[in-house]
Amino acid sequence: MSNNTFQNKEFKDNLQRYEATHNTGKPVYLGPDELTDIAEYYHLHGQLNKALAAIDQAIQMFPGATQPLAFRARVAILLENNTHTAMQYARQIEDKADLDYFYIMAEIMIASGNDEQADRYLKEKSTEISDDDIDDFYLDVAVLFTDYDNMPLAQAWLSRVTDTLSDDYLELKGRIAMGQGNFVESEYIFNKLIDRDPYHVPYWNLLASAQYLHNNISSSIESSDFSLAISPDDVDAILNKANALCMTGNYTEARQYYELFMKLQPHSEMGEMGIASTLMGENKLEESFKHWKKAEERCNPRSVNMIDILRNQSLVCAASGYTSEAFHCIKKLEAIAGTEFPDIHIIKGYIHLLNKQDDKAAACFSKAFETGGDDDYIRILFFIAYCYYDCGFMQKAHNMLRAVSLSSQSQQFADVWLYLSVTDYELGLQADFIHDMTKAIEQNPREVRSEFHEYFPENIADNELIDYVNTHPISNIDNPLTR
Question: pTM higher than 0.90, yes or no?
Fold first, then answer.
């Protein structure tokens, strides 16, 4: 559903008629698709009870209609984590040849963890689609798999589309590229789409997301500002800006945007996750844990966010000295992600490091590498390096972080240069310090100033930081960059 739908006069008139009659208890004479649009509008604005009231009315007035039942089934999937209920609604759809019936049946399969089954089902149904509709079908299926982060299947379905010049095709191509870590390509595509339609908010939001993931934080904030100038209450733009501000260490302003997001989307876990992250950044661990728990309560257990929530709960408990609670969180994480999930072994290793059990930690880290595979090696190395860094093992952290910084994936790790700079400082590595601090300052001067507040003069300007580093050595050792 495009936000543009909610801006046209016909929708506004229908919404006004619905609210006028609904408040008086009188029946409203709107069709099933129109009532579903109204439910979508309420849902977008965080008014779930109103959305359900509208959709329940549509289902009652138009039994068997596709759009209301498909919408209600998606609510069951995404908000109630109940694929059984979703299937009960989907089976009530009268037109079993409707494309939206195919889509909701496939989505239920995907939400149940049966992506390959959904793929086979949709391939079978594709033989029933007319030549006029087949491109739209391929594109819609690719969008569905993209929404559930299955980029290989999304790419496979997108490759079937023949009209490769349409805006919808390019938008999805950019989303898949972003999901696969091809940020340069995705930014190029989103900029191209913005050139075609500079007032289309979703394009600005996608560009901001790609820039954020590419660690181009200032540009991400600028893109979000463009989006908010067009649509001040756009929840995606608000969340993007909050995330970017959090990345810069501007936790107070970031929290304000997360709180605004929560007002607009009170049922989403994302606002609580963001607030918890800002509190972690401020080392307010117990307060942070409360918000991670609230995020867990709001989160669909099958969501990828649940893994992040439980991971952070474990880390906060461990850092706070609550070892048994940390392992309890890990058990919950294992139940979702499995015992072969490498992050579980990283967290266990971190807990052992905190408890001065270096050998046990090393064994856990080795297990993380074994379970992770080659494609995940650098990511695992970075997080293990952070564990050593946070526990004061500066030489080990330095060596691992240097390996990350020299890898082709270094841009995926926003803090690698800052962490390296700290290890350089602690180890007295002068040449390394100049090199790494220059990189860190270019990327995020605010965070550098915060971390090195005792090294830099209080009133120094951002554009003076690099010169200061070059003229104020931390060591007389003119060492070469370590390799």
Answer: no
CA 191, chain centre distance (Å): 21
Q: Dihedral angle at the C-alpha atoms of 460, 461, 462, 466, nearest 10 degrees?
A: -60
Q: Round to whole Å and give the CA distance between 163 and 180.
A: 22
Fold of 169-247: 1.25.40
How far is residue 290 from each of residues 36, 245, 262, measured CA to CA in Å?
A: 36, 22, 16
pLDDT at 229 over 50: yes
Contacts of 471 (CB under 8 A, 6+ apart): none
Which of 276, 282, 250 is CA-nearest to residue 262?
276
Give the angle 424-428-434 at the CA atoms, nearest 5°: 55
| Nearest C-alpha neighbor of 481 from the set 422, 414, 412, 434 | 434
The burial class, CB within 10 Å (0-12 / 13-18 / 19+), for 99 is middle
Helix (H, G, I), strand (E, B) or coil at 128: coil
Q: Which amino acid is at 306?
A: M
Q: In this structure, how many other beta carbons lie within 10 angstroms of the beta carbon of residue 48?
A: 16
Domain extent listing, the chain: 169-247, 414-483
Over residues 430-442, the pLDDT tens digits come to 999 999 999 999 9
pLDDT digits (tens, 9 = 90+) for 358-378: 999 999 999 999 999 888 999
The amino acid present at 182, given as its one-letter code, is: N
